[in-house]
Amino acid sequence: MRRVLWAAVLVTLISGFVLAQGPRFIHLSWQHDPATTITIMWRTDPSITESVVEYGLTSDYGKTATGTRISYTAIRQEIVWHVVELTDLAPNTTYHYRCGAPGYWSADYSFTTAPALDDTSTQFSFAVIGDTQGGYAVLKQIFSILKDKGVRFILMTGDFTEGAGQMEFDMWFEAAGDVLAYIPFMPCHGNHEMLRNTYFDQFALPGNEKWFSYDYGPIHFVHFFLKTRNTHSSNGAGF
């Protein structure tokens, strides 16, 4: 029994150590103009208090931005997310970045900003997914295909999980891997998100984060949040 307890303690310590070594569940989104901004979110151990992004046109970076820290309790532990928005970026330009804090940096990633509003010559593709609800093995394959296809961003029509629990979202992010560290991701709230903080605290979106719109090049995208009479007050469907 003593050996089992020590093994459990060792696994816990190793898991905490790995988590503290660098960011996980990194994902990109837009809170403002996709041509000139990008928002980067990642999760860390609660002991890491700094929220820093180094970025630039090459992996030498050259610029630094700082942001905020979001904390809440789920599955009997403190969950910590970091949010940093990069601004004054050039349209249709690829940037390199790493996120974290001194001693706890991520790997080098890159993203490409949207074309300018009046740019009608740049061709691009995007993807729309939805209702993943536990199909994590298939979801992992889908994300891998979308990265290989070179889509510029991904839209999600809602219903990430069955019950919006933190463990379900963790499995969802694990399935996404590092794909969303390269490709901006813009979800809608679905009825299975249940207006819970596990949705709103894990994604940085425009305005009230329920309904919003933005321009990607010359195309205008609108995200709706709808309620129906036949659903309880926590439910809302995204489109």
Briefly characterize the structure.
The protein is of the alpha+beta class.
Describe the protein.
With 239 residues, the chain is α+β, with helices and mostly antiparallel strands. The protein has one domain: Immunoglobulin-like (Sandwich), CATH 2.60.40.380. The chain has helices at 2-20, 136-149, 166-176, 197-200, and strands at 24-29, 38-44, 52-56, 63-66, 68-74, 77-86, 94-100, 109-112, 126-129, 153-156, 185-187, 212-216, 219-223, 225-226, 237-238. The radius of gyration is 18 Å and the shape is globular.
What keywords describe this structure?
239 residues; alpha+beta; 4-stranded antiparallel beta sheet; 15 strands; globular
What's the end-to-end separation, in Å? 53 Å
| SS elements, strand count | 15
Shape: globular
What is the CA-based Rg, rounded? 18 Å
Quaternary assembly: single chain
Low-confidence stretches: 4-19, 230-234
- What count of domains describes the coordinates? 1
Which strand order do you get reading across the main beta sheet?
1-2-6-5
Structural class by secondary-structure content: alpha+beta
By CATH's scheme, which homologous superfamily applies?
A: Purple acid phosphatase-like, N-terminal
Helix content: 10-25%
- H/E order of the elements? HEEEEEEEEEHEHEHEEEE
Instruction: Please report the number of helical segments.
Output: 4
CATH class, anyone?
Answer: Mainly Beta
| Average residue-wise pLDDT | 89
Strand content: 25-35%
Question: Any idea what the CATH architecture is?
Answer: Sandwich
The main sheet comes to: 4 strands, antiparallel
CATH-derived topology: Immunoglobulin-like
